[in-house]
Design brief:
Layout: E1 6-10, E2 13-16, E3 25-31, E4 34-42, H1 45-64, H2 75-89, H3 92-110, H4 120-129, H5 136-154, H6 182-205, H7 209-231, H8 237-240, E5 247-253, E6 264-272, H9 278-281, E7 284-287, H10 292-303, H11 310-316, H12 333-349, H13 362-374, H14 379-386, H15 390-396, H16 398-404, H17 406-410
Helix pairs in contact: 2-3, 3-5, 6-7, 7-10, 7-13, 13-16
């Protein structure tokens, strides 16, 4: 059946195939004595007619809002002129920041976005996506957006009444959560370990696909929370986005075996490439907890080739997510959060952790940093390891560490050197 090439809908309104080779219908609309042509992206004429009505309604809406009925400008289309406007109107220190954040955030998220369709809700989403709330960069981005819409309004790309109100980034909020006591930390680690062992025994007794999935999930949950408690990483993306290629194995001489100079031990580091600080300061290398190799060995013996060691399994699967299930290319982050909540509720019921305080996954990092300070770890080394600043550690954690080492303060004797020495 020959394809219908033209259909008149009303005066100055029709759908058609622009040439003999075309398979996609276009629509022609007359608005304010201007003939506007737009593709419907439809190959069936009835669907093209429906789409044409939507296009016409959109154009009429633009007329009612005193906007141009021709194609609206995108962020990409106005970028060159806007950046020239910034260079001409802003102070040197400000324009460098505005150009940087325009390219880093607006071009990344809104490159092909029509400028007259940007709403306050889109701006809030931008702040959230790039974690700009409570930051100096967030304040600069707010200034950038105000200057952008000044430029758009002046050039009649956006009508004054349709200009969105630029929301301010939310002020920085300090999370209030509790430091884990030693026995509480141990209770969490024991809970995840015992859960892993129970599903391991279940799988060994009945190697069904269902039991394997349960075993795999809880083996990885055990590894995740063990690492979270022992390396100071932030919960979420910093660990959950790790791939096998981010695990770095090194061999070192075992100095405890003096009689055998060829005896080596393996140490593992991880390269954290995701998360809050990685977006700003790049990746960082973090040592794994002491028992990481044993955890990996127990898991890998079920998934690696029969003759492969755990480190060979890591090397052969560089793109696999460490905490991903099966061959999936993403990580089910909700599972780890739900697993933590189940553990917390169970430990509260059994009286092993406190009920009247806020204990969250971030408490593991909170506890790690505080205990490291108590044990005298260099604050600069700790800041580098945890992906934060010395100032933040001193401001947030040092008070806790000082209270935990109070006995050392009590032992200070101000008059020690003034006491008479024995003759």
């Amino acid at each position: 059946m020959q394809q219908e090439r033209y259909r008149r809908i009303s005066d100055g309104f029709a759908v058609y195939l622009p040439n003999k080779q075309s398979k996609t219908y276009w629509c022609r609309v007359r608005i304010l004595k201007k003939e506007i042509k737009k593709t419907t992206n439809e190959r069936e004429i009835d669907k093209a007619v429906e789409r044409a009505y939507m296009i016409k309604a959109h154009l009429q809406n633009r007329v009612e809002r005193d906007l141009p009925v021709t194609s609206s400008k995108t962020i990409n289309a106005i970028s060159k002129d806007f950046l020239e406007y910034v260079q001409e109107t802003q102070a040197d220190s400000t324009k460098i920041a505005l150009v940087r954040y325009f390219n880093r955030y607006l071009m990344k998220d809104w490159k092909n976005r029509p400028v007259d369709e940007i709403k306050a809700s889109d701006i809030l989403k931008l702040y959230k996506n790039h974690e700009l709330d409570g930051t100096k960069i967030g304040k600069y981005t707010e200034i950038l957006l105000k200057r952008l819409f000044d430029f758009l309004e002046y050039n009649d790309f956006v009508a004054k009444e349709n200009r969105p109100t630029i929301p301010k980034p939310k002020p920085k909020q300090t999370e209030s959560f509790e430091l884990l006591k030693v026995d509480e930390l141990k209770a969490f680690i024991d809970f995840f370990e015992l859960t892993y062992l129970s599903f391991s025994m279940l799988y060994e007794s009945d190697k069904s696909e269902k039991n394997w999935k349960l075993f795999e999930k809880h083996a990885l949950a055990n590894l995740y929370f063990y690492m979270l408690s022992g390396c100071g990483a932030r919960p979420g993306d910093e660990l959950l986005n790790l791939q096998m290629k981010d695990i770095i194995r090194e061999e070192r001489t075992n100095f405890n075996q003096i009689d055998n100079p060829h005896d080596y031990i393996s140490t593992f580091n991880i390269k954290i490439r995701s998360g809050k600080m990685s977006k700003r300061s790049g990746s960082r290398i973090v040592p794994t907890p002491q028992d990481f190799e044993n955890h990996m060995f127990r898991y890998a013996r079920h998934v690696a080739e029969p003759d492969d060691f755990h480190y060979e399994y890591i090397e052969k699967n560089p793109e696999k997510y460490l905490f991903g299930f099966g061959d999936k290319e993403s990580v089910n982050k909700d599972f780890y959060e739900k697993t933590f909540n189940i553990a917390r509720e169970s430990l509260v019921k059994s009286g092993k952790i406190r009920q009247d305080v806020k204990i969250v996954p971030y408490s593991f990092r909170h506890t790690y940093v505080t205990f490291a300070l108590v044990q005298g770890i260099d604050v600069y080394l700790l800041a580098e390891n945890c992906g934060t600043s010395v100032n933040i550690i001193q401001k947030t954690y040092s008070k806790l560490a000082a209270s935990m080492r109070a006995e050392e303060i009590y032992g200070i004797d101000l008059f020690k050197d003034l006491k008479s020495k024995p003759e």
